[in-house]
Amino acid sequence: MPKLTYNEKSFLLDGEETLLLSAAMHYFRTVPEYWEDRLIKLRECGFNTVETYVAWNLHEPEEGQFVFEGIADIERFIQTAEKVGLHVIVRPGPYICAEWEFGGFPYWLMTVPNIKLRCYNEAYLDKVEAYFDQLFKRLQPHLSSNGGPIIALQIENEYGSFGNDQKYLQYMRDSVKKRVGDDLLFTSDGPLPSMLNGGMIENVLETVNFGSRTKEAFEQLKKFQPNGPLMCMEFWHGWFDHWGEEHHTRSSESVVETLEEMLERNGSVNFYMAHGGTNFGFYNGANHNEEIYQPTITSYDYDGLLTESGDVTEKFYAVRKTFEKYVELPEMKLPAPSSKKQYGEVQLTERVALLDSLDQLSSPQQSQAPLTMEEYGQGYGFIVYETVIKGAYGKQILTVQDVHDRGQVYLNGEYVGLVDRISGESRLEVDITEEETTLQIIVENMGRINYGPFLVDFKGITEGVRMNNQFLFDWTVYPLPLKEVSHLRFTNAETKENHPYFHRGTLTVDEVTDTFIDMSKWTKGVVFVNGHNLGRYWEIGPQQTLYVPAPFLNEGENEIIILELHKHKQAVNFVDTPVLG
């Protein structure tokens, strides 16, 4: 495969000037059965390269337990890109942001003594090295220097937006370089002087990330790097959504205008995201703007060139037409669109209360004070804290001090209210009238922060629980990662509002195809199809449907389980069109 180098004006593939026209697509957000379809579509749009981040938390979910199969089979993804004729850019982190849980870091890093992330800290670097040993062992055969399609690799990620530790960046450069030899290495940062000063590394190519104001961004890059080519490593032609926001869109006209400004200057470009995909399971990230915690929705559609379910868009055709002005492209030959089916209504005839199922879902742990989710060895999902208050306290203010992220509170089995990080509401007025009162708090981890200064984001109850000023001790805790829900014992029990219940029904399929589950009549929760965690839904939107790729379904009977936290319904609909906003 050709080797990528550069001069002050251009990238060179085996010495020949070339524009890198790259499309961002994350293997971990699309089921493997669809990788080839999406990659072919990106090639037919005119791209010659695909770029992907690498999600550490997917590959090492628990320390020392490495996963490189299924949706985590990065080698298969790279080989598929090569098969369809695309070069590959890899951004291995260890930090990736990406609106992905904890910016790609595995949760267990937060339990390592004396660790400090993203700086020259031995405890942190030891863990990075152990992970890189496993990752690069799989990347090395696919490097261009070994005849593979990987033409460039990124060092860290937008580091100038976080820190200025040059010793750390140089260490990361050398750590990757010793594993890849002389393959091209680069960094990417926002185009502000502070970001470029903080993120650039000696002897490593710098690129910039932006969505508009091309002239200013490229001028700033040239000021800091006069001897390198121009490249926008993240062209934000769309955007992601937080819960409660409008769905973000950007017009084709605006995208093409900015793209032309880059191409006219011989600037290479990576479309972020050309195909966004889905934050399946509990892998969505969150932001924090110093005032409010903002969890990201399940869909990572991003208003990309391909939709979440892989369909081409008007923007796709506009970008292809623009590319044709600057590079010679063969006739476009798109794969057939994937079929979508409206399977209709499924009755949910069985149900069981979450609080009645703790022994089926969890092994209880004891602690004097309520600890964080991480301290109980849990990464994701929900957690239930339980204690007994002895004595008739009377009217009290119950405070759940620093809940991360959303807690439903029960006294002797009765719902008393919500404590919520988003609203900042942590106090409830209660009346403790019995000599013994059981207090239960169900806390949902809604996604760790993936960007900015609040990256270390412990989950659960992070400080304590008190009645007025008296802290409560002696807790029984039930971690609920919900990796497995097949052991639940369903009944026909009646439901109670604001009490979480699992609901189960059967979808019978004669023809397996993509579909969407319409959650617009439900309130908040999680959906499982044949054991696959589709992700979260929430009535505040903008997302009202969850994508169900055909590989999650079987011909015949399919088990549908919905964990609803508040208001319960008897049925759910499968539709053929997504609703985002």
UniProtKB/TrEMBL annotation:
Glycoside hydrolase 35 catalytic domain location: 10-325
Boundaries of every Beta-galactosidase 1-like first all-beta domain copy: 370-481
Catalysed transformations (reactions): Hydrolysis of terminal non-reducing beta-D-galactose residues in beta-D-galactosides
Keywords: Glycoprotein, Glycosidase, Hydrolase, Signal
InterPro entries, alphabetized: B-gal_1-like, BetaGal1-like_ABD1, BetaGal_gal-bd, Galactose-bd-like_sf, GH, Gly_Hdrlase_35_cat, Glyco_hydro_35_CS, Glycoside_Hdrlase_35
Record-level GO BP terms: carbohydrate metabolic process
Domain named Beta-galactosidase galactose-binding: residues: 500-558
PROSITE patterns named in the record: GLYCOSYL_HYDROL_F35 (PS01182)
One Pfam family this sequence matches: Glyco_hydro_35
Gene Ontology molecular function terms on file: beta-galactosidase activity
Annotated active site: E158 (proton donor), E234 (nucleophile)
EC number: 3.2.1.23
The family this protein is said to belong to: Belongs to the glycosyl hydrolase 35 family.
Protein name: beta-galactosidase
